[in-house]
Amino acid sequence: MLRPVVGGGREKPEGEKRMSLYECVILARQEVSGQQVETLTEEMTNVITQGGGQVTKKEYWGLRNLTYRMKKNRKAHYVLLNVDAPSPAVKEMERQMSINEDVLRYLTIRVDTLEEGPSAMMQAKSGREEREGREGRGDRPRRDFREGGFRGDREERPRREGGE
Questions:
Q1: Which residue of 57, 98, 123, 153 sits 20 to 30 Å from the alpha carbon of 42, by its own alpha carbon?
Q2: pTM value > 0.70
Q3: Protein fold of 20-112
């Protein structure tokens, strides 16, 4: 029998031992290649599987600008991992990331359910790609400022006399 969960997502049957669910975002240095980021992701996945857990989803968000500089880096490779594992396996993964000099930052959060499907970042990325695919501003009306398009069709006000 499955327990109801608000918001959908993946859950375990009642009889099965429940491991904790985590979301982990990793920021890797901008100098490393995409292949090295993939290797780093595989290493962290191996740590989790050796600890008795599993990584249910891996998403590469790409090379993105950082809000502020971290360790002299202005950009970072972002990776999301959805993890279903016991706490010691996650602690070991975090220890490995803290040792690795290619990892700028990481954040692991325990969640009640893991989201299925693409994350919000991937949805925003696909929406942006669709918008960029359109030519110009075809869906927005073009305004001509010389013809009064900026202020609309306002009537001229009568001018005051007396210089005020």
A1: 123
A2: no
A3: Alpha-Beta Plaits (3.30.70)
